[in-house]
Amino acid sequence: MDLATQPALNARPNAPYWWRLIATALSFTLFGVGGVLLRIVVFPLLSLLPGSALDRRRRARATTSRLFWLFVQFMYRSGVLTYEVEGAERLGRPGQMIIANHPSLIDVVVLIALIRDANCVVKQSLWDNPCMRGPIRAAQYISNSGSMDMLDEAAAALQEGQTLIVFPEGTRTTPGQAPQFHRGAAAIALRGARIVTPVTISVTPTTLTKAEPWYSIPARRFHFHLRVGHDIDPQSFAAQGPAPIASRRLNDHLHQHFMKELGLDERSAA
User: Fold this and answer.
1) DSSP class per residue in 205-226
2) C-alpha to C-alpha distance for 37 and 221, rounded to whole angstroms
3) For residues 250 and 189, is the Cβ–Cβ distance under 8 A?
4) Would you put residue 76 in left (φ > 0), alpha (ψ -120 to 50) or beta?
5) What is residue 118's DSSP assignment?
């Protein structure tokens, strides 16, 4: 059964702490080893297949998506997590910019697992990570350098009809604090997106956050909940004034949406 169509998976009994710790270690070991094998074996072999540069990129993205799906399944079946996905059938449309909050280490993994041919803005440091640079480079993801070139590249990808995943926070949310969105994501949306789709992610209890090492697992398995929101037309904001004003208003709209969806109030953002 495909991850994109599965209902909530939370019926299994909670595995013992010691087993979940071992399973978590196995999960990230498999992730790391898999990333290296992709770089030195799988992607070089895929590059030998006939086809254009676009075909090679699509194959790399589809392979990465499928392996991320298997990674999530391993974490579920080994008792590390349960998950629930609402509205995944509305992800992956041409020119769609997916904007998500970022509470945990595996947010991008789950989103890419749901979309077979997605682009993604990723942290610049991951381009040199031995476990991640293979998939990142082969799939031609975009480096979050913060430069104008990055904004141009992301907007161009949307204009070409690619689906683009962006985390406006730029890094994982600090536990206990509200998400803080950088305006660059809104600027990209105004310049290139046909539609903007907010995706709210919650992890209960919190784990794999910015402040925690992978082995600091919660007392019980965690539940990963992903909810796809209603589409936003970026042009409705572009018509409200010059680019800086439109960008600020779209960014404020997105921030308020996530605050509401996460059950936070404006005092939390102070």
Assistant:
1) S--S-TTS-TT---SS-EEEEE
2) 29
3) yes
4) alpha
5) E
Task: Copy the structure tokens of residue 86.
Answer: 């609402």
What span, in angstroms and rounded, lies between the C-alpha atoms of 153 and 235? 19
Q: Which residues contact 78 (CB under 8 A, 6 or more apart)?
A: 15, 20, 23, 26, 27
Q: Answer whether 0.85 is exceeded by the pTM.
A: yes
Q: Is 269 exposed, middle or buried (0-12, 13-18, 19+ CB in 10 A)?
A: middle
Residues 6 or more apart whose Cβ sits within 8 Å of residue 57? 138, 139, 140
The CATH number of the structural domain formed by 3-269 is 3.40.1130
Per residue in 113-130, pLDDT (tens digit) is 999 999 999 988 888 888
Query: 140 exposed, middle or buried (CB, 10 Å; 0-12, 13-18, 19+)?
Result: middle
The Cβ of residue 120 has, within 10 Å, a number of other Cβ atoms equal to 24
Q: What is the pLDDT of residues 105-116, one digit of tens each?
A: 999 999 999 999
